[in-house]
Automatic annotation (TrEMBL):
SMART domains: EZ_HEAT. This is HEAT repeat domain-containing protein.
Amino acid sequence: MSTDGIPGPVVSIVEDGRVPDSAVPLGGRRGPVSLAHAAARFRPDARALVQRWQTAEGCWGDQRLQIVLQAVALMRDRKAVDDLLTLLRGEPAPSTRALVLAALGAFDHLGPVPARVYADVEDRLTAESEDTTVRSAAAQCLGQFGSPAAIGPLLNATESPDPALRGGAITALGDLASSADLGPDDLRTVVEALAGMLAVETDEGLALDLVGALGRLARKGQPDALAALREVNDRNRAVLRAARYFLPPAEKP
């Protein structure tokens, strides 16, 4: 039975936090992520799904909307883009705005991202009054979009005094540099920036983020990324071990 494009079992999953035993072999109460997977399996209408629960009384920021947004991200249905942008602009809970950005980032493989979507996401990254969690999610969303236009805003974000935002921007630059849409000059800019940061970074967590980003690029055949990892020889044990992980077998101690 379906209501406005939403199968009955999906309503139960979102409203009750429970997958009906008769619907799919995932019975019992589960966390939002597995519930979202169960809901996505029914391929409900993504727009109807967002519209129904974004207007439900008391729904803002609670587990129901979390399930809905994760299901939309899994389905990667672009018909929901405008509704997601409405949520992004009007939702007061930072945790929900971050989930909206994650859902938008999941559309990266469906072709060029509409300009209005890119602009809204970049605005979230650059707004200094925005919550750090949201800005970090916006950075990672831009990285998934794969547009060279994101290089400047992301590099600016790596200069933030907030480690969480810097880490999100570093990860996003790694994603961006892995994109097929980047030309050789843009790719060189990103790799050189990441390598320069790694050479002077003293925060262990951020150094590990940088090693991870450069390691992915080294495995894609970027010699400058590999060279930067070879230079990691005076760090704490965790950073050194992470850098060595990405070296060719013949170079590992």
